[in-house]
Write a structure and sequence with these properties.
Blueprint (H helix, E strand, L loop, with lengths): L1 H30 L5 H16 L1 H8 L8 H11 L1 H14 L6 H21 L2 H36 L11 H22 L6 H31 L6 H13 L8 H5 L1 H8 L9 H8 L3 H11 L4 H18 L7 H7 L5 H12 L3 H7 L1
Helix pairs in contact: 1-2, 1-3, 1-9, 2-5, 4-6, 5-6, 5-7, 6-7, 7-8, 8-9, 15-16
Length: about 375
């Protein structure tokens, strides 16, 4: 009776997961204007994740094939670990686009394929747990490298662009945190599943672990899918090198307009250069009649800001003027657009960070 209840609950949870992942994959496919490589990989990833929950449904469809045999059960668990490899392939495609290839994908999947292969041949629990340790070490190394690169890419982006909506990689941090967490949960799940459920206690433990495991992935994928569908590719190493060459070739002090340098803020405000949604360092330098490296040095060393924060400071000041104007009938969202913000969500976030309150609250107090 207890075993039957556990089976029904397990099948129900797995069915929800399967349906959620396939729906999320279809959403990304339909929502993306242009399907980039990393988005195609994400769709495949969601499909694979859905299939990993098919093993419990398999026992209901084919009752003669039992997963209660310890070896078969563990073999299925090794196949489920491949999901982690697909997550790494996806992250590489997002963070290191120039490295995303079939060769890289095979290298990233190698430890997980070896896990399944070694266990299927040796078939001992020593090989099972030994390969788990290898997979964990490999995961931690790749995750650490990706974590560092996300920070570097975001910093470079903020030094060059004023609008980083759908281009920054901050959303990758939760994934990089969840992956080690997934490993821990997966190991616990593997340990509980490696022994046949017998009494009420063991079944309860397995049920709780399985529930939180499934619920976490469902919520996480529902959070990530909309972000991935809107994400734009980041700069490749080749494009970054071109930017570095421009910086190297530029003489820092050989070309600048002295009156401009003394009145940069006033000129930017008066001319309204900050109102251009997509203005970047190169464009602003041309408009000011100076070179990009001098302007970059001025912003970084004199103002102690990134280009992104520097331009948005003008936009916030413009927004504050409109919010304080009693004759202004524009809505908050319209004020955001009139101030140079391309995305309303960015305006709310940055305004709160700078002013320590919401635009609505500021408007009431003004």
């Amino acid at each position: 009776m207890i075993l039957e209840q556990y089976t029904i609950l397990s099948n129900f949870t797995s069915g929800i997961c399967l349906g959620t992942f396939l729906t999320a994959a279809f959403y990304v496919y339909r929502s993306s204007e242009t399907l980039y490589r990393f988005q195609k990989i994400f769709i495949a990833l969601l499909a694979v994740m859905g299939l990993t929950f098919f093993d419990t449904l398999w026992t209901s469809i084919f009752p003669n094939i039992s997963f209660k045999i310890e070896f078969v059960n563990n073999l299925v668990l090794t196949l489920e670990s491949w999901v982690n490899g697909f997550w790494l392939i996806f992250l590489i495609a997002v963070i290191y686009p120039e490295m995303s290839s079939w060769k890289t994908s095979l290298i990233l999947m190698a430890p997980f394929v070896a896990f399944t292969t070694v266990y299927s041949i040796v078939g001992t629990m020593y090989s099972f747990y030994g390969m788990i340790v290898i997979v964990i070490i490999f995961d931690i190394i790749i995750t650490y490298l990706c974590f560092r690169e996300v920070g570097r890419k975001n910093k470079l982006l903020k030094e060059e662009e004023s609008n980083i909506e759908n281009r920054d990689l901050t959303w990758c941090y939760p994934i990089l945190i969840v992956i080690p967490t997934f490993i821990i949960v997966w190991v616990l799940y593997s340990i509980t599943q490696s022994k046949l459920p017998g009494d009420t206690v063991s079944l309860s433990v397995i049920s709780v672990v399985e529930f939180f495991y499934c619920a976490t992935w469902i919520l996480f994928c529902l959070y990530i899918a909309p972000i991935v569908s809107r994400q734009k590719p980041v700069l490749t190493s080749k494009e970054e090198n071109v930017t570095k060459e421009i910086k190297t070739r530029t003489e820092v002090y050989n070309y600048h307009n002295k009156p401009v340098l003394d009145n940069i803020e006033k000129i930017i405000m008066d001319k309204g250069y900050f109102l251009d949604y997509d203005i970047n360092l190169n464009t602003l330098a041309l408009k000011l009649g100076t070179n990009r490296q001098y302007l970059s040095n001025y912003i970084n060393k004199e103002k102690h800001q990134s280009f992104y924060d520097y331009i948005n400071s003008f936009r916030i000041e413009r927004a504050k003027q409109l919010l304080a104007d009693k004759t202004c009938t524009l809505s908050i969202e319209e004020i955001a657009l009139e101030s140079g913000f391309k995305a309303y969500s960015s305006f709310i976030r940055i305004f709160g960070k700078v002013c320590k309150q919401t635009p609505s609250a500021y408007r009431k107090q003004a």
